[in-house]
Amino acid sequence: MASVCRGRARSGRGPAAVRAANTLYDVPVSNNGARCRIVIYGKGLEDQIAIQTPSDAFGGLKEPGYLAVNPQGKMPALDFGGLCLAESETINEFLVDKFSDVGPSFVAATPELRAKSRLASRVHDMYLTTIQGCMYKGAPVYEGDGGAALRAEHIKQLDYQLDVSTCSAVPGGD
Ligand SMILES: N[C@@H](CCC(=O)N[C@@H](CS)C(=O)NCC(=O)O)C(=O)O
Questions:
Q1: Which portions of the chain are predicted below pLDDT 70?
Q2: Which parts of 70-146 fold into alpha helices (H)?
Q3: Nearest CA to ligand 1 atom 12
């Protein structure tokens, strides 16, 4: 998802004047956001990309100002000089491309390693994030009859998918 940020000229809750030209909207506990922060910190881009919480900047994820940046109302989102990007992998691909000459490349050295890197990312998006709530969510699916058993099953799955994402569940994987 890429667009010119519709909310950029609006003030949101936070004063627009203090918003940097390039901002990653994220909170520290977000695993999706952490992927982007790793690239920002690894490349030393902190002086070029500010990191702000959606709450501080807009009053929350579902506020109109933030929805204009990311219509999904999720974190992370990047406003890069008016270009709005959502989805952590898409944001990272942009950062790695845009700042290819700054710091570590974050691109694996061979086609085989790049394939493994993409696989880890895909497994995270498709199979880990969909059940990660079993680690901290109370409701609704983990309540009532069968709730505890489902949580136990998802925790087992989570463990398995972590192995899959690092290829250690695959014979011959490393
Ligand atoms: N596929 C998205 C997932 C984004 C996502 O689900 N973010 C979570 C935080 S880790 C979020 O914003 N949750 C709040 C909500 O859905 O209301 C990505 O890779 O960025």
A1: 1-4, 6-19, 139, 170-174
A2: 88-98, 111-123
A3: 74
- For residue 31 and ligand 1, the question of a CB distance below 6 A is answered with yes
CA distance 96 to 106: 7
Q: Closest residue (by CA) to atom 11 of ligand 1? A: 74
- Report pLDDT for 136: 85
d(CA 81, CA 78): 9
Neighbours of 13 (CB within 10 A): 14
Query: What top-level class would CATH report for the domain 2-98?
Result: alpha beta
90 Cβ inside 6 Å of ligand 1: no
Domain parsing of the chain, residue ranges: 2-98, 111-165
pLDDT of residue 76: 98
List b or e across 149-167, with b for residues whose CB sees 16 or more CB atoms inside 10 angstroms: ebbeebeebeeebbebbee
User: What is the model's pTM?
Assistant: 0.85
